[in-house]
Amino acid sequence: MEQSDGPKRPKLVDAADGDEDRLSVLPDDILIDILAKLHRTTMDARTSVLSRRWRGLWKLLPVLNFPLGTEPPLGIEPKHIVSALTSHEAPVIRHLIVSLREAAAESVAMWLPIIAPRLFGELSIFNLRWDRDREIGTVELPCFQSADRICLNLDDHGLALPPSGVFARLTYLRMISIRMRGPCRLGDIVSSPRCPLLQKLFLRDSYVQDDVVVIHSESLLEIGIDNVLLHHDALGLRILAICSESVLQIDLKNLALRQLLVVAPALISLKEKGTHYIADAVDLSQPVVNISAPQLMLLEWNDSYDRSSVQFGKMAHLQWLHAGQFLVYGSDEDFAHNRIRLL
């Protein structure tokens, strides 16, 4: 009589034999959760690499990812994105990630209106342009009323912000390498009337169409603006005004402003570097800076300082002051002297 060493393990069936594997007998909600955690969910779920039992489940995924490929063509064709979104059956989408290569602005416009009313989470778009001689276009951004995070890197494509509508749930907005176009101004779109819950705003390596940017917000906590210029003026913005009862941190770099106005009673940290650098000798007038931040605890001021044109107001809670590096002797002696005044 044969001795048994214990209960026998059930034999796993190879899905390649045409039968269901053990994973495939799991409930749909568990399979969907597994697929949602894969990095290439949308593309792989629509191919034969998965069991037949899985192939239709991608239509119910809350996360859709269209990554760059490893072989030409590296970017997914816009028509495939449109096809996937129109076939998608989930009531809402929590995260849409689209990575593109040399995508025309018009091709992005094909699928943005499809996703706008269904997105209840994050939108991430990354476009890689290698051909710098190729004509750039303008992406018209619809109003994402239910999105809570939007991250756009258009690699120098134009972006037309929606002239109407409220981004009612948006808390995070990051825009990199874009050219603002259209009648809607940047300050209007990020202020409280149109983004009532926006907490974090970041804009970098971009162009705006207005020389005056005014931000009024009762919800913003953090603002970061770096290397933002005008389309037609290498000198950059003329006026940046930030009025916010809530903002705690402001980080400004390489803006070449003529005037900086900040009214932020709750502001704790202000970092500024190269904001008033004048790139052209045409305008040699001193910038005017007026900062009202009575709760300020950290100040980094890496620029010239003159009491007649730079006013910080009372800073009774200041604990950390950084005036930048400077040479005691040398070509920047005048600039260093201005910084010493701040100390």
TrEMBL record:
Residues 23-63 form the F-box domain. It holds the Pfam family F-box. InterPro entries: F-box-like_dom_sf, F-box_dom, FBL15-like. It comes from the Eukaryota. This is F-box domain-containing protein. It comes from Triticum urartu.
